[in-house]
Amino acid sequence: MKERFIETPNLPKGEVSLVVCDGRINSDVEYNLSEMGIKIIKTNKQKVLYEAVSYHPDLLFHHLGENKIVIAPNVDDSFYYALEDEGFDLIIGKNKIEGKYPKDVLYNVARLKDNAILNIKYTDEVLLEELIKRNIRLIDVKQGYAKCSVCIVSEDAIITSDMGIHKKAMENLVNSLLIKPAYIDLFELNYGFIGGCTGFISSNTLAFYGEVETHPDYAEIKYFLNKFEKKHQNLSKGKLIDYGTLVPLKEYCII
Q: DSSP labels for 152-169?
């Protein structure tokens, strides 16, 4: 079956055929994605980042839509080549990612079609220019880990545990469900974020690393997803895990 690049970042129109995932995903996640016919590009460890997030896709690059990607200049070569082999045009960012905040969040932008939730001050200049060039409205927030903190539900809806992001989203007419922080594992850190354990695997199916039912706000999350005609798919058993956003890049198409 033929494939096409996903036009709107994070929001496929069909069944996803290619994703980028943290190189440490467990065997259940890998098996379930492959059973759905989804090819996986795994990230490698980025030694400049601290251990818990050293493989996180959403810290390494930002998908602009179609075959355009802005990527940190110091990501390992094998990851560059894997994306280029899939036909992506890589735009090299100005600044290198580094381990100490805010140098690790330069590319961590949550894109919802015509809106981008980000900390403008900390976002890489090249990425900012590309967003502005595309007439994307910039919703400036204090949280540097903007994409980590945002689960994208639709082009005008998100889930987050960050009160600042929640308020800014609502002010900008983006529907937002505010959930309790924590209840998501992130290796040796205290807890992870909802954006880092989710990503779409089809136009109406949001995948979770782990079981979303383990979250105390599951009923609200399920109701919110239903409101926007989305369903969920758990990729593994047990508690939710923040592996960094599952990033869909290609989808199957008939022609």
A: EEETTEEEES-HHHHHHH
Cβ contacts of 87-94, under 8 Å, gap ≥ 24: 87/5, 88/5, 88/249, 91/64, 91/126, 91/130, 92/126, 93/124, 93/125, 93/126, 93/127, 94/124, 94/125, 94/126
Q: Is the dihedral of CA 40, 151, 128, 8 positive or negative?
A: positive
Bridge partners of residue 71, in order along the sequence:
61, 92
Residue by residue, DSSP assigns 79-111 as HHHHHHHTT-EEEEPSS---SSTTTT-TT--EE
Domains in the chain (CATH in brackets) are 2-253 (3.75.10.10)
**Single pTM value for the model:** 0.97
Neighbours of 142 (CB within 10 A): 12
Q: What is the pLDDT of residues 67-116, one digit of tens each?
A: 999 999 999 999 999 999 999 999 999 999 999 999 999 999 999 999 99
What is the radius of gyration, based on Cα positions, of the chain?
A: 16
Both structure tokens of 122: 């900390």
In sequence order, what are the beta bridge partners of 175? 157
Question: Smallest Cα–Cα separation from 22: which of 248, 243, 193, 232?
Answer: 243
The values of phi and psi at residue 39, to 5°, are: -80, 145
Please confirm whether the linkage preceding 216 is cis (ω < 30° from 0). no
